Amino acid sequence: MQPILDAFDARAILPEDGCAGALAGRVWRPELNGPSVVAVRDGASGAPELVDVTRAFPTVRDLCEAADPAGALRAATGETLGPLDAVLANTPPDTRDPSRPWLLAPIDLQAVKAAGVTFAVSMLERVIEERARGNPDAAAAIRLEVGRLVGDDLRRLKPGSPEAMALKAVLVAQGAWSQYLEVGIGPDAEIFTKAQPLSAVGCGQEAGLHPGSQWNNPEPEIALVVASDQRIVGASLGNDVNLRDFEGRSALLLGKAKDNAASCALGPFVRLFDDRFSLDDVRRTVVSLEVMGADGFRLSGTSPLSEISRDPADLVEAMMGGTHQYPDGAVLFLGTMFAPVEDRGAPGQGFTHQVGDRVVIRSPGLGALVNRMRHCQDCEPWTFGAAALMRNLAGRGLLGA
């Protein structure tokens, strides 16, 4: 099986401006039998290094609750763990030295949520999945039919607007309405639970595919990090791995299509907002994707956030407010317009993952998230939950007032 990181090094996964941003992450420290919160900084030699700031912030959740998370991270002091290169190189599970630190997903106690059907292109693909009942053989013909009825340029249509409601009335009259069009152009956004706190995998780890799925794809996205008071404090890259056949058979299978072992990837770090990087930079970001298969297959594409149908701040408001509180904050995947339809095998079969695919999701301001796909049961099992984290931090004397 091809290596996860291949030629990637620390500079290759960092943002284009290196360590200039306020970058927070998490590292597993075997000698402590638990995780530490780290800051990514330029070392004395000029190479990126990791500084353990857990004494100041026992969890990333605590860091995000600060009045100025980016400033607080920059001011925090702690033990230097050494070069990021070494920790990154030790992260892939098949080559790891378990006595040395490795990278984790950069979030911990936050709820992990996702917004669905936020781009016109992916909205139409969800409609196609629904009509195909999860059968990729039927997708090509249905794609033509849906394009004829709906069109493919819905980017300028504001969800919930009078124009959107007029289009809805026309489609209902033609028998072409869909639950995906409802959340795509209707007044209410789709917000669902992607994964449980502490279950996400990080850069350099393996991401999970349900073994029963025959039609699936990566979903390269930006994930916003939101404090408990609804402040959007940072962002990371994410892969909202999607099982198109499961969800296509029934929207009630969304949980099975989305929330599986190792099926939520986030990283490499959380970039906290400051005067160098803000929500406006997220709005302008283009997320790129590259899939490299062990069979020689290559797939690439981009997802410009400028084409999102609902503003990121509006999606956060739909997730959190008077009717939904998250005392430990939340992470919100913003959705993707990337819906690969290129044939990987037989004509008309479209794209689906194969075990061993290496997936690289990248943006200039957030760096690169690199994972290798495996069946869920073959990925590292998730055994360290919230109770284990609290016991570990208490044992380390980190849960004081």
From TrEMBL:
Transmembrane segments: none
Keyword terms of this UniProt record: Hydrolase, Metal-binding, Plasmid
Record-level GO BP terms: small molecule metabolic process
Domain Fumarylacetoacetase-like C-terminal: 230-373
Gene Ontology MF, one: metal ion binding
InterPro entries in UniProt: FAH, Fumarylacetoacetase-like_C, Fumarylacetoacetase_C_sf
Family: Belongs to the FAH family.
Name assigned to this protein: Fumarylacetoacetate hydrolase
Organism: Methylobacterium aquaticum
